[in-house]
């Protein structure tokens, strides 16, 4: 599991540790880790550190201090290091002295030739969009030169991943003590490049955000045993499709057939299309361990949604099924419930604009889970899964923008429903479903069709369980 912590939590852990260590010890740990990553990158790119031109962008706080001390270490190894301050009056004094003592220099303007830029403008002390002096430096980073971000790319909000205006795009981010949510959630995540965590010895409580890895997914996926039969493995029922959208039913069933359930049952008007593509499907009402309702349902089918929600069976509600949901009805349920909106559907459920959901995805998914008393999977660039009751929000690390194609959400709802039928909780079914869905899409590559994502699911399952 990859875990991430808010700025407030990191600061508290830092204070506690600093009280027990000599002054400046944490910054030296951070700078040593940062310098090692920079040196590794320079060696890979040009064979050696000696003679490399390194530019440090230096902000007014400790993030700049880290960059200056790391720059001093690189200068001692023969790099030509130039520090460019955001504000020449406010640079970490100890760091600047160390850099100068090691042979580095400060300059007023950004050199146009460099082998590496180190972004030490802002770390966890950054607030709001970059102010003009910082933005001007970011805009002058020479194109094609690799950037290593210190703690996080400047301009990315550490707690949310929000980016308001210009921001650094890094090849590598070297972060200290703990990942921050903004490094795992887009748009911040796509600015951070490869993540490198430097352990500075922090002791941390439960995380705010977590991302599953292969081993976590393997531990959650249901595996059949000698005593399994198709009913014990779980039956998932799919209520999807309409005369207008029969394809949604076919795709949801395609996902469900590859989600580990022993059988898939289809209920709805697209039975002929479903059977033509998936002869394995059972047709018509019957007993199931989990229902999926919503993909391609069209208008006027709220009664069917209400009927399923009234049953004491796990239910996943997607797409058209999400219209007009009553929070009181959902909160009263005791069986697992998973809602899988995209940003537009989430906005309608919260009564806010789509833009506000997209700008603050973490807050939106948390509010949805609280309000509806259910697990909620918010689709989009970095899919998020929250559960009612304040557990860490799960961030899916496997997505790809190629998934933004018609019908891929239908495959996901069938898949996650199948996992629910296999006995996973709402949040686990959502997070594991999104993980396999993203892996399958990455395996397929783009441009991709939703049905290809479904077809690649067994291979993605094997990748996660037998890496
Ligand atoms: N606290 C600790 O124990 C450690 C901190 N470390 C480093 O210290 C950093 C945090 O340092 P600070 O708390 O000094 O904060 P930062 O260095 O992140 O930035 C704070 C400064 O930036 C200015 N600023 C804030 N938002 C801005 C914006 N949008 N545009 C322009 N300027 C802005 C503020 O006025 C303030 O002067 C971490 O990210 C990490 O790099 C590391 O050395 C490890 C140990
Ligand atoms: N920019 C993006 N990056 C990664 N994944 C995305 C992006 N946009 C959409 N997706 C994913 O694509 C799928 C689209 O689902 P959805 O919006 O329900 O479409 P549909 O209803 O056509 O199936 C979801 O899994 C979502 O997370
Ligand atoms: K930074």
Overview of this structure, please?
The chain has about 475 residues and is α/β, with parallel strands linked by helices. About 40% of the residues lie in helices and about 15% in strands. The protein has 18 helices and 18 strands. The chain has an 11-stranded mixed beta sheet with strand order 1-9-18-17-16-15-14-13-10-11-12, sandwiched between helices. Helix 9 links the parallel strand 10 and strand 11. The longest helix is centred in the first third of the chain and has 22 residues. It is elongated, with a radius of gyration of 25 Å. The site of adenosine-5'-diphosphate has 18 residues, from helix 16. The site of ligand NAX has 27 residues, from helix 1, helix 2 and helix 3.
């Amino acid at each position: 599991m990859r875990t991430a912590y808010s700025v407030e939590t990191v600061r508290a852990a830092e204070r506690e540790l600093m009280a027990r260590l000599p002054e400046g010890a944490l910054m030296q740990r951070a700078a040593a880790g940062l310098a090692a990553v920079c040196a590794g990158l320079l060696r890979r790119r040009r064979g050696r550190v000696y003679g490399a031109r390194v530019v440090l962008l230096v902000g007014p706080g400790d993030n700049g201090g880290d960059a200056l001390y790391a720059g001093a270490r690189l200068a001692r190894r023969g790099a030509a290091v130039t520090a460019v301050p955001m504000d020449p009056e406010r640079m970490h004094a100890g760091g600047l002295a160390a850099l100068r003592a090691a042979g580095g220099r400060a300059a007023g303007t950004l050199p146009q030739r460099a082998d590496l830029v180190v972004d030490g403008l802002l770390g966890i002390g950054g607030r709001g969009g970059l102010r003009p002096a910082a933005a001007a430096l970011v805009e002058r980073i020479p194109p094609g030169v690799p950037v290593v971000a210190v703690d996080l790319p400047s301009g990315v909000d550490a707690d949310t991943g929000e980016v308001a205006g210009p921001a650094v795009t890094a090849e590598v981010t070297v972060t200290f003590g703990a990942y921050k949510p903004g490094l795992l959630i887009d748009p911040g995540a796509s600015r951070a490049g490869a993540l490198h965590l430097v352990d500075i010895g922090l002791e941390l409580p439960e995380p705010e955000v977590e991302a599953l890895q292969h081993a976590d997914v393997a531990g959650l996926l249901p595996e059949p045993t000698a005593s399994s039969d198709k009913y014990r493995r779980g039956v998932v029922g799919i209520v999807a499709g309409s005369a207008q959208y029969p394809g949604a039913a076919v795709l949801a069933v395609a996902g469900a057939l590859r989600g580990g359930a022993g059988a898939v049952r289809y209920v709805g008007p697209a039975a002929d299309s479903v059977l033509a593509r998936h002869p394995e499907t059972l047709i018509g009402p019957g007993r199931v361990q989990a229902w999926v309702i919503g993909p391609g349902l069209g208008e006027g089918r709220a009664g069917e949604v209400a009927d399923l929600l009234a049953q004491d069976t796990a239910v996943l509600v997607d797409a058209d099924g999400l219209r007009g949901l009553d929070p009181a009805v959902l909160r009263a349920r005791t069986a697992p419930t998973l809602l899988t909106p995209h940003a537009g559907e989430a906005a309608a459920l919260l009564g806010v604009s789509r833009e506000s959901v997209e700008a603050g995805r973490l807050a939106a998914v948390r509010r949805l889970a609280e309000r509806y008393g259910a697990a909620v999977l918010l689709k989009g660039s970095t899919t998020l899964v929250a559960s009612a009751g304040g557990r860490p929000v799960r961030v899916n690390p496997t997505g790809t923008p190629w998934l933004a194609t018609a019908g891929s959400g239908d495959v996901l709802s069938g898949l996650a429903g199948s996992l629910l039928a296999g006995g996973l909780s709402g949040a686990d079914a959502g997070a594991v479903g999104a993980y396999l869905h993203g892996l399958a899409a990455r395996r397929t590559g783009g441009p991709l069709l939703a049905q290809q994502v479904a077809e690649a699911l067994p291979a993605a399952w094997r990748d996660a369980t037998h890496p």
